């Protein structure tokens, strides 16, 4: 039997932009992607702390150490610049493997989205 478990979480980052005219996705600072073990193109769930919105999109790589968190395309309608969000990805694992799996969870600085 397989189950879905938390794989990666970027907990409480500030939205730096919303670009309605982009094709779609969420642009995430490359440093945050690497620290959370999320890869470009990976499906992610977004939870908006400010308004309760929950939706899914995919990750694209932003400039390293820029602090960028930009929602693109239709997702831009679900956030405002400076909203605080949580970015989550899941993995499908065998039940026994899932019991010992340890997710990558990071807690960036909410002021500038840095890892310091």
Automatic annotation (TrEMBL):
It is found in: Cytoplasm. The modification Pyruvic acid (Ser) is found at residue 25. Is synthesized initially as an inactive proenzyme, which is activated by self-cleavage at a specific serine bond to produce a beta-subunit with a hydroxyl group at its C-terminus and an alpha-subunit with a pyruvoyl group at its N-terminus. Catalyzes the pyruvoyl-dependent decarboxylation of aspartate to produce beta-alanine. Substrate binds at residues 57, 73-75. It catalyses: L-aspartate + H(+) = beta-alanine + CO2. Belongs to the PanD family. One of its GO terms (biological process) is pantothenate biosynthetic process. NCBIfam families: panD (TIGR00223). Pathway: Cofactor biosynthesis; (R)-pantothenate biosynthesis; beta-alanine from L-aspartate: step 1/1. Its main location: cytoplasm. This is Aspartate 1-decarboxylase.
